[in-house]
Amino acid sequence: MKTIGHAVVTRSYGAADVQTYEPIELGKPGPGEVLLRQTAIGVNFLDIYHRRGEAKPASGLPFINGFEGVGVIEAVGEGIDDAKLRVGARMGYTLAIGGYATHRLVPVSRLIPLPDGLSDVQAAAVLLKGTTAEYLVRRVYPVQKGDIVLVHAAAGGVGLLVTQWAKHLGAVVIGTVSSEAKAKLAREIGKCDEVFLTSDQTVSWDKQVRDRFGETPVAVVYDGVAGSTLKKSLALLRIRGMAVVLGSAGGPAEPIDVHALKARSLIVTSPSLPHFTADQTSLHDSTSALFDVILSGAVNIPEVCTFSLAHAAEAHTEIEARRTTGSVVLTA
């Protein structure tokens, strides 16, 4: 059995236009795999790092980008006897490269049964970002009631989930954003108590935090920007505070003096989602917690920006230009 579909293929590292939409041919699923006909594929900054060559797939070039998606099982490989994994079942997955395609093979270990309350586009928008938010606020630094939490890029796909979840856990949430439009999102959707503009030329965001909350008030900072932001964030942390570096949208973090951290016993960590969802049990524990807060209304999925799969390059361009808010999804 062969399946004919289309995929966005990256044949060289570089700008968004190195990605081309091409026909592909797939064989039948092997043992421990299913063939998924995809309906929605999540786009993440992780994809951009891989397209640029800043992170490289183990298979090398060429490759099909994308690490999460949603679809319907069309065929099941040998040795799979789980009744949930039947032809026609709706499934999501995360951290399985090869997502930018109409059809793909997915290891059973990465599959996630989806609740009826989530549409395909919503699920594709939230699986990777939502499990990221889960491990950040529940396991990397378990947010406690009354903690002051600082979230950079608070109007981004991960940021809007982290801020809502931290608020649900009882934290006082501070967000930073780059524009007034994003500030509105961070307040209204992200439920931030305070939002400060990184683009403010009159008063810096870190001074505004001090003026409002004191000299070193922050329990944890979730920093997806890095660049010059990390040093300013460290200066705001309380004794035994933690800086969690989860991305570098603003460029590589400026070097820090690790010995200076001792003055307040600060912790700096840069965790990775695969280490927190490495097996099916930990993955399903994470998605179960995620679905609980979404279906209860504690965390709302922000409005999703969609592009057709054939226009993946345009989606990357918009994300890199920081013209998107919330999540971006490709529809197949």
CATH topology of the largest domain: Quinone Oxidoreductase, Chain A, domain 1
CATH architecture of the largest domain: Alpha-Beta Complex
CATH class of the largest domain: Alpha Beta
CATH superfamily of the largest domain: Medium-chain alcohol dehydrogenases, catalytic domain
**Overall number of strands:** 16
* Percent strand: 25-35%
Q: N-to-C terminal Cα separation, in Å?
A: 22 Å
Number of helices: 9
Keywords:
Quinone Oxidoreductase, Chain A, domain 1; 9 helices; alpha/beta; 2 domains; Rossmann fold; seven-stranded mixed beta sheet; mRNA 3'-UTR AU-rich region binding; 16 strands; Quinone oxidoreductase; 332 residues; NADPH binding; 28% helix
What is the strand and helix layout of this fold?
Elements lengths: L2 E8 L8 E8 L6 E11 L1 H8 L10 E2 L3 E9 L13 E5 L8 E5 L3 E3 L6 H21 L7 E5 L4 H12 L3 E6 L2 H9 L5 E4 L7 H9 L4 E6 L5 H6 L2 E9 L21 E3 L3 H4 L3 H16 L8 E5 L3 H9 L6 E5 L1
Parallel strand pairs: 9-10, 9-12, 10-11, 12-13, 13-14, 15-16
Antiparallel strand pairs: 1-2, 1-4, 3-5, 3-7, 3-16, 5-6, 6-8
Helix pairs in contact: 2-3, 2-8
